[in-house]
Amino acid sequence: MKIKKILDTLSKTKYLITKLLSQKNGIRYISLKTVRLLSGALIGVIGIIVPGLIINELMSGIQGGAWNISVLTVYLALLLVVPLLYQILLVPLDNMLFRTGGELTISLLREFELYVAGMDYETIENPELQECRERVSSTIEGAVEIVDLIGNIFSAVISFGVSFSIITYLNPLIILLTLVMVLINSHMAKWMNLKRFELRGEFSKNQRKNWEYKDMLRDKSYAKEIRLYHIAGMLLDKVTQSERDMNSTTYKNNQNRHKVNFVLNITNFVQSAVVYIYLICKVLSKAIPIGSMTIYLSASQRFSGAVSSVVNSYMALSERAMEIDEWQKFTKIPKIEKTGTLIPSADGNSYIEFRGVSFRYPGS
Predict the structure, then answer these.
(1) pTM across the whole model
(2) What's the rounded Cα separation, in Å, for the pair 65 and 297?
(3) Residue 94 CA to chain centroid, in angstroms?
(4) Torsion over CA: 87, 90, 95, 98 (sign)
(5) Taking the mean position of all CA atoms in its chain, how far away is CA 72?
(6) Which residues contact 99 (CB under 8 A, 6 or more apart)?
């Protein structure tokens, strides 16, 4: 069942990517996003490895009495200058992503509305189909966000591969412990999302009641009945109770968040403590230099973050896959085949003139 769901999510993701690649702005957006992700992954690798190399070089200089200035200069340039250049280039890159993403959304919506315009009138006027149309439009407007989720998974996989290749030196049990802690965290995050979704519905129901009672109190058309039957107090009690119910729902949501954060803090503490103790013992036994300890610590934390990012981003993507499925099904509804030629679009100075047109009321 799980495998089938994963394959279904991948199928829907493939459909979205295909739709985007059919647009000129889609190709450009995906290319820019790939550049941003790869450059960000490179900066992450530098942040993992270079600090430890600098510490090892300094320790070698202290012990041997000779400093390799050229090597230290290269390391410092990688650690300081490259991230600075990345941040400078990030501003125009993000601006281009923002503009291209906006244009991509507009072109996708235009294509969708043109498709809808070619449908049979009775078909498109179906209330259920109208609601579906609104949902698909919202999905198209959020298509760029879905691409960002895919990009997050891609970036996390790169980070996972790099960090895992580094921490393979560590005890396999530590790697297994890290995976278990990440799975626990992901399970708690999924539980939190389900609870939040349930409470969101409860909160919306109480909020609608609150607005309804307040509108009745403020609406002049109900003023006579409210005074005649003395129900102002009852309506105010209803307003108060609905506000208490909303506060109760918010309190439950906060309590659930505190529970999740508590579990996350415990698992992070256990994981970090085990890795620190193991690496300190290795340094004290002179099995690894102190700089390498820094590299392994950073790689271990990055490995944990990468696995969490992959799992959480996939769960979010699988939820959005249902929206893509509705989009895909909507575009399979048959259209009316049009005949004739397309009239060129009019310029701003054009007008429409009717000739030989008459009208009369029925029976006149």
Answers:
(1) 0.66
(2) 28
(3) 16
(4) negative
(5) 39
(6) none
